C-alpha cells in the first residue's frame, strides 16, 4: 500500500460518531477523505465534515459526507491534513496545494490537529520546500519586489497553462525559496505584519499528532502542543 494511503487510513481511525471533522487538502488528505467516506457509507459513521478547499468539498460531496462550513459549526473536534514539511520540533510548512488559508482557518478553530505525511516530509529544519505566502492581488508586485530585495527568491505560483494561480479565497501565492528557515517564529511574525499578505504557510505550534508513513507501518508522534 502507498505510504500516503496508509497514513490516511490510520488517521481516519481518530474520527468517531458525532464529531465535526476538518477535512484537509492534497494527495495524502484525499486518502483520508476516501476512508471517512467509506466509513460513512459502509459503517454508518455519522459526522459533519468541514472542508478546506473546493477540491476537498467536491470529493466529500461525491462520497456523500455531510458538510457544513466553518461558520456553521461551533467548533471542529479534529482536523486531519497533509503537510509539505515537518521539522523535528513539530513545526510545519503547508500550502503546496494552495489551500493554506482555509487550512489554517480550520486548523485554528479545531480542538485537535493531526498531520499525515510520508516519511520524506520529515526534515531537520524547514525551508527546502518553498514557503507559500498568500497575498492580495492588489499590491502583489510590490510584495514580490520586497521579497526579492530580502533575498527570498520569490516566484508567483502559476497554473499548468502559465496563468497566475488564484486561490479559493481569490488571492495569489508567492513561493519563497529560503532553503533553511533558522527562526520560523520570527519569519512568521514578519510575514504576519506585512500589508497585503493574507496568510503564510508556516503552521507553528498547531499540530497535536503526526502520523508518518514508513514502509514497515505508520508511526504516530505526539507533539508538545
Ligand atoms: C495543501 C497542503 C497539503 O496538505 C500539502 O501540500 C501536502 O500535500 P500532499 O499530501 O499532496 O503532498 O498544504 O495546501
Question: What are the defining features of this structure?
Answer:
alpha/beta; Rossmann fold; Alpha-Beta Plaits; 2 domains; six-stranded mixed β-sheet; four-stranded mixed β-sheet; binds ribulose-5-phosphate
Can you tell me about this structure?
The protein is α/β, with parallel strands linked by helices. The protein has two domains: 3-121 and 204-222, 3-Layer(aba) Sandwich (Rossmann fold); 131-198, Alpha-Beta Plaits. The protein is built from six helices and 14 strands. The strands form three sheets. The chain has a six-stranded mixed β-sheet, sandwiched between helices. Helix 2 runs parallel beside helix 3. It is globular and about 55 Å long. The structure holds ribulose-5-phosphate (5RP). Ribulose-5-phosphate (5RP) binds at residues 24-29, 81-84, 94-100, 103. The site of ribulose-5-phosphate has 18 residues, from helix 2 and helix 4.
Short characterization:
The chain has 6 helices and 14 strands.
